[in-house]
């Protein structure tokens, strides 16, 4: 196992994955430097979710290696990766709907500290201060005492972010974090994640089909097309790429343009 210093917080090398007769990923590389906000884009069926699931340990790649925070992590289970500092949110995070907003964050903090949550004893007071601090960060402090079930969709996403942050991740991985949101809500939501990640020095990898969201926050973009990396670079380079414009059906990939590739 390699533990040599690497300039990357996350590095995928030669990831391939086949589903029956379909080559969903073919020799995909990706490098994420500390502090990056890295978007994975591409038309529907390009392999974004498959790649994402390989990164987070939900899916075993046929070939390739994944290195995280200086060590090889391919083959590790999702919970092991979480413990190493790879935080996932959205579509996966468990919110306990019968608990209050604060209790949800306390549970996550307890889990991270490997304690057993017992909300019905004096120990229920544990992690209150830290929990409130996290809720403050995501703009939910005023809702701390509310039952999670009663939160609006956008606020539930904020809670999921607070829960993910409870494990003190070095890297956040978000698969379509703005799915199911109204266009207006999407930008505010990703900007909150971006702001909090910057404040805490957390890197981020996210898949996204809304180009307005991508260009609002991404510092670097990997474009997948038919399971391969079509382009990688800074937003302005990717936007200017003729190849990228072609795969988006000839539409210019312009800032402010939503919904391309979906
Ligand atoms: N579990 C699976 N079994 C078979 N085919 C799959 C599976 N998951 C994804 N695929 C196929 O792999 C390709 C890539 O899918 P996916 O990674 O979900 O793309 P994206 O997220 O970019 O839309 C698609 O053709 C999809 O139908
Ligand atoms: Mg997908």
Tell me about this structure:
The protein has 262 residues and is of the alpha/beta class. Helix content is 33%, strand content 23%. It has nine helices and ten strands. It has a six-stranded mixed beta sheet with strand order 6-7-8-3-9-10, with helices on both faces. It has a four-stranded antiparallel beta sheet with strand order 2-1-4-5, with helices on one face. A hairpin with a 2-residue loop joins strand 4 and strand 5. The longest helix is centred in the last third of the chain and has 18 residues. The chain is globular. The relative contact order is 0.18. The C terminus is likely disordered. Magnesium ion binds next to helix 1. The site of magnesium ion has 2 residues, from helix 1.
The oligomeric state of the chains shown is single chain
Low-confidence stretches: 256-262
Q: What string gives the helices and strands in order?
A: EEEHEEHEHHHEHEHEEHH
The largest sheet is: 6 strands, mixed
First-to-last CA distance? 39 Å
In the sheet with the most strands, the strands line up as: 6-7-8-3-9-10
How many helices?
Answer: 9
- Each distinct ligand: adenosine-5'-diphosphate, magnesium ion
Class from helix and strand fractions:
alpha/beta
Binned, the helix content reads: 25-40%
């Amino acid at each position: 196992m390699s533990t040599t210093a690497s300039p990357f917080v996350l590095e995928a090398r030669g990831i391939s994955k086949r589903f029956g007769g379909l080559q969903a990923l073919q020799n995909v590389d990706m490098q994420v430097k500390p502090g990056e906000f890295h978007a994975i884009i591409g038309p529907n069926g390009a392999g974004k979710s498959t790649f994402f699931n390989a990164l987070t340990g939900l899916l075993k790649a046929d070939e390739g290696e994944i290195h995280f925070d200086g060590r090889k992590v391919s083959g590790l289970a999702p919970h092991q990766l979480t413990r190493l500092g790879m935080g996932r949110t959205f579509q996966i995070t468990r919110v306990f709907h019968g608990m209050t907003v604060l209790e949800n964050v306390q549970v996550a903090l307890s889990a991270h500290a490997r304690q057993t949550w017992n909300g019905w004893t004096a120990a229920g007071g544990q992690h209150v201060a830290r929990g409130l601090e996290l809720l403050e960060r995501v703009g939910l402090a005023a809702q701390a005492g509310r039952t999670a079930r009663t939160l609006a969709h956008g606020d539930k996403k904020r809670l999921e972010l607070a829960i993910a942050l409870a494990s003190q991740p070095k890297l956040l991985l978000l698969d379509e974090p703005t799915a199911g949101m109204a266009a207006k809500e999407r930008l505010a939501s990703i900007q909150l994640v971006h702001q909090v990640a910057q404040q805490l020095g957390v890197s981020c990898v996210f898949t996204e089909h809304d180009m307005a969201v991508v260009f609002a926050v991404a510092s670097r973009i990997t474009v997948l097309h038919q399971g391969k990396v079509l382009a990688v670079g800074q937003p302005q380079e990717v936007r200017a790429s003729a190849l990228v414009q072609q795969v988006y059906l000839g539409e210019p990939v312009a800032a402010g343009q939503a919904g391309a590739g979906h």
